[in-house]
Design brief:
single chain, about 20% strand, alpha+beta, 1 helix, about 100 residues
């Protein structure tokens, strides 16, 4: 083999779970026809779904899952205002003396 030839290492297709920390327990299934990827941990059943394109690889979905988990964790620490029970605006009181 010449010294200029590069040896490409295969990209991982099984990964460590962020939640249960088991090695090689997370698999990613790419459905390019439907444009969807499914990530599943076979130990703790943690799941993640994302859109894919023709360039997407399993490591891309795993990295996206890590980013989404980090973002969700950051959001947990931010105090939030209580949400209204309805999205409809409150009725406006009409004063009958104005007529």
């Amino acid at each position: 083999m010449s010294s200029s030839a590069q040896i490409l290492e295969p990209v991982d297709t099984t990964f460590t779970c962020l939640f249960c920390h088991h090695d090689k327990s997370v698999t990613v299934r790419l459905d390019r026809k439907e444009g969807v990827a499914q990530l599943v941990c076979r130990v703790c059943d943690q799941r993640y779904q994302s859109k894919v394109n023709h360039l997407t690889e399993p490591i891309d979905i795993y990295s996206e899952w890590i980013d989404a988990a980090d973002a969700a964790q950051r959001d947990e620490h931010v105090p939030r205002r209580p949400l209204a029970s309805s999205s409809r605006p409150a009725p406006v009181a009409i004063d009958s003396d104005e007529e």
